Amino acid sequence: MRHATEQPDWVTELLDAPFRVKITDAGVVFHGDGAEITFGQPEGTPSNS
Predict the structure, then answer these.
(1) Which domain of life does the UniProt lineage start with (predicted)?
(2) 33 lies in which domain range?
(3) Which residue(s) pair with 31 in the sheet?
(4) Number of domains in the chain
């Protein structure tokens, strides 16, 4: 089932296919066959570590 989103097609295609999630110091990385998306923590944001 697809839901309407505001995401570009390539983001939807990446997240609809199998992907890996990796947590790093730089942020959260979603890695699929054709693309990679990194969600980073803004500078100056305190970490929980």
Answers:
(1) Bacteria
(2) 9-40
(3) 20, 36
(4) 1
